């Protein structure tokens, strides 16, 4: 069931709407030709909805629900979801200022409504936990990025942090010791970043750990990954996100998500609280 919290979030409302639409279609047992015979959209429209290349209007959703026999409660919920889905997300309002790799916008949509956010980041401080100086150092190292573009990205990242941290999610973050020893931006910048991490770790909703070099081999050797879990009323399955240079691996497959969770549990068992490492 889709709750009122999902109704207020454009990205998650779009995802919920698509899930409901595809389930209605599948439950009907009708072929695409039969759906078209009822006056419903053609296969191409259903495929665009499924891939979220476009979404139906409230009137279209209402018509589909009536034709496929959705009960009044579900129909009203889906029509409302369609209304929310038409609004731009906060990151869409940034226009071209927000570069995204495939899958990253899904992460942005979901992290705002997550109840638990687990992150393993062996090489860099993850974006949600970066201090301003560290952000600038990372952006300065990016090829072809102008100073003005870097500042826009820093402003966007700050907005992302403000929308997620302190809004109900419980964080568990494991950093590789490499993260704390590499002098991104120089010693002063790293002192600022470590102090910021310690400040975050002091919060009741954030726990930060460090995987020391002495831990040796570990099951997170392929790089950074994030696992999101959601409260029941959000109607969202657990979600995994693994970062890459040109894209990301995103999955709602329970087996894939469980594999990442098992890896994180092992890594946590090899890690120490950041307070013991940053003294």
Q: Which features characterize this protein?
A:
Endonuclease, Chain A; 2 domains; seven-stranded mixed beta sheet; 279 residues; alpha/beta; 49% helix
Explain what the structure shows.
There is one protein chain. The protein has 279 residues and is α/β, with parallel strands linked by helices. The chain has 2 domains: 4-85; 92-277, Endonuclease, Chain A (2-Layer Sandwich). It contains 13 helices and 7 strands. It has a 7-stranded mixed beta sheet with strand order 6-5-4-1-2-3-7, with helices on both faces. Helix 2 packs across helix 6 (72-85). The radius of gyration is 21 Å and the shape is elongated.
Structural class by sheet pairing and helices: alpha/beta
Q: Write the CATH fold name of the largest domain.
A: Endonuclease, Chain A
Q: Helix and strand string, N-terminal first?
A: HHHHHHHEHHEHHEEEEHEH
Mean pLDDT: 88
Strand content: 5-15%
Q: What is the general shape?
A: elongated
- With helices defined by DSSP (H or I, 4 residues minimum), what is the helix count? 13
- What is the helix content? 40-55%
Main sheet properties: 7 strands, mixed
- The total domain count is 2
CATH architecture of the largest domain: 2-Layer Sandwich
CATH class of the largest domain: Alpha Beta
Oligomeric organization of the protein chains: single chain
Strand numbers in spatial order across the main sheet: 6-5-4-1-2-3-7
Q: How large is the radius of gyration?
A: 21 Å
């Amino acid at each position: 069931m889709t709750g009122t919290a999902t109704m207020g979030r454009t990205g998650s409302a779009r995802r919920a709407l698509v899930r409901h639409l595809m389930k209605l279609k599948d439950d009907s047992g009708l072929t695409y030709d039969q759906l078209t015979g009822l006056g419903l959209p053609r296969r191409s429209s259903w495929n665009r909805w499924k891939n979220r290349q476009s979404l139906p209007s409230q009137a279209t959703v209402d018509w589909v629900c009536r034709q496929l026999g959705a009960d009044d409660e579900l129909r009203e919920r889906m029509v409302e979801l369609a209304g929310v889905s038409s609004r731009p997300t906060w990151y869409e309002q940034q226009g071209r200022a927000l570069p995204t790799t495939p899958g990253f916008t899904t992460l942005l949509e979901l992290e705002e409504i997550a109840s638990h956010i687990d992150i393993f980041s062996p090489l860099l401080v993850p974006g949600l936990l970066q201090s301003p100086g560290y952000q600038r150092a990372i952006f300065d190292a990016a090829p072809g990025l102008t100073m003005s573009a870097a500042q826009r990205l820093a402003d966007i990242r700050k907005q992302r942090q403000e929308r997620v941290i302190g809004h109900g999610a419980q964080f568990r973050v494991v950093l590789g010791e490499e993260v704390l020893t590499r002098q991104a931006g120089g010693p002063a910048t790293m002192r600022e970043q470590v102090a910021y991490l310690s400040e975050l770790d002091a919060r009741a909703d954030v726990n930060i750990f460090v995987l020391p070099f002495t831990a040796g081999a570990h099951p997170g050797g392929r790089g950074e990954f994030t696992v999101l879990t959601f409260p029941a009323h959000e109607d969202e399955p657990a979600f995994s996100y693994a970062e890459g240079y040109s894209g990301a691996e995103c999955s709602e497959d329970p087996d894939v998500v469980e594999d990442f969770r098992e890896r994180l549990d092992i890594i946590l068992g090899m890690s120490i609280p950041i307070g013991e490492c940053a003294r």
